[in-house]
Design a protein that fits this description.
The protein is α+β, with helices and mostly antiparallel strands. About 50% of the residues lie in helices and about 15% in strands. Strands 2-3-7-6 form a four-stranded antiparallel sheet, with no helix packed on it. The radius of gyration is 21 Å and the shape is globular.
Length: about 375
């Protein structure tokens, strides 16, 4: 049995053609390098340029800024095909789905023209610096400061767990421009790391070693009087950062939910094929009633997740996806992803624990899904606020 998803309500002929193109690109250009990228802990820099040439980067940014002129559906197709191919190293969801949209939604015309075309080409690799060693989901409590100086800001502090952290040369930094104002003192500054002005004051730490997502470069960074010019502030004034973050987080969380759906479907498809072939006590593993019941339950959950996420995607396209519903999608799908992949691995027995089997990689890659983008405990608190 191959797990089939229903035809999503947002799909059309153009997106189907795009899906075929994207799938071919990933299998041709990225899949052959996955093992090597895992071992070196980062994708090749030219992978970003190839993705730009293929139209994969900034697909939902208007063409006038170098993007693909699409919408969230185009990002979904890319995210899905990347997950189906098992490509985890290139942090396009952060680059295109998050950082590019901060620039597009809150940047000035000059900022959009300066950064977005180079993000679409892969010349610039985007990252967002939110998390700090002492601050995770509580973004109002960030300690990194930006003090006004002649022509800009001096930024001091430390950030960690930056996706694309080793390769990024355009980083959206969450800072406190007014440390005494709580959320109203948060601002977003765009750091161009290739600028000679930050050569000695901005430092990257080591590429952090993780239990999963091995090819995705994840780093800590340090700011020691890093100068960021005033014109790199996102928004018309200081203090808008927290609102900007809150407005964009539903899309970030839905992207995570999309990848969770594909991971469930991929794990189940792989497992269904395996239990048809593998035998124990003279019969196929699929012929045991326990196998049938377990897979029936998990296939149902995967389908429910997909229908819910598709509905959320339609709401996002209409501008109607609220923070609470996005939080529901993020926590529930990632929780089910971890449960389903774990149960699928069990059917493989000892082979499931071997990294040469894809199910093992799916298992270790799944765990972070319940943490980043806001931990699932925080998601439940957001939902509870609407009770």
């Amino acid at each position: 049995m191959t797990v089939q998803t229903h035809n999503p309500p947002w799909m059309n002929e153009e997106l189907n053609i795009m899906r075929e193109h994207i799938a071919r690109f990933f299998y041709r250009e990225f899949v052959p390098h996955i093992k090597r990228w895992d071992e070196q802990g980062v994708v090749d820099r030219d992978a970003w340029l190839k993705a730009g040439q293929a139209g994969i980067l900034c697909a939902s940014i208007p063409a006038e800024y170098g993007g693909g002129g699409g919408d969230f559906r185009h990002e979904m197709v890319i995210e899905e095909e990347m997950a189906r191919a098992g490509v985890t190293g290139i942090g396009n969801s952060v680059h295109s789905g998050i950082v590019a949209h901060y620039v597009f939604n809150y940047g000035s015309e000059e900022q959009k023209q300066r950064w977005l075309p180079r993000m679409a080409s892969g010349e610039l690799v985007g990252a967002i610096a939110m998390t700090e060693p002492g601050t995770g989901s509580d973004l109002q409590a960030v300690a990194t400061t930006a003090v006004k100086t002649d022509g800009g800001y001096l930024v001091n502090g430390q950030k960690t767990f930056l996706t694309n952290g080793q390769l990024a040369n355009l980083i959206c930094v969450v800072v406190k421009t007014d440390p005494g104002a709580g959320g109203r003192g948060v601002s977003l500054l765009m750091l161009e790391t290739d600028s000679p002005a930050v050569k000695d004051s901005f430092k990257r730490g080591r590429n952090l070693e993780k239990i999963g997502l091995k090819a995705q470069d994840t780093s800590e960074v340090f700011f020691d009087d890093v100068f960021i010019p005033t014109e790199n502030l996102l928004g018309a004034s200081e203090g808008l950062g927290f609102v900007q973050l809150m407005e964009q987080l539903p899309q970030e969380r839905l992207i995570i939910a999309v990848s969770a759906c594909v991971a469930m479907e991929r794990a189940l498809a792989y497992t269904c094929d395996y239990v048809k072939e593998r035998k124990a006590f003279g019969k196929r593993i699929l012929d045991f009633q326990n196998t049938q019941f377990k897979l029936a339950e998990r296939l149902t959950e995967a389908r429910l997740a997909r229908v819910f996420v598709d509905d959320c995607a339609m709401k996002l396209l209409e501008g109607k996806l609220d923070a609470s519903t996005a939080a529901m999608a993020k926590w529930w799908t990632t929780q089910k992803q971890c449960e389903i992949v774990d149960e699928c691995l069990q059917f493989f027995g000892g082979y499931g624990y071997m990294m040469e089997y894809p199910i093992a990689k799916m298992y270790v890659d799944a765990r972070i899904q319940k943490i980043y983008g806001g931990s699932n405990e925080i998601m439940k608190l957001l939902i509870a606020r609407d009770i």
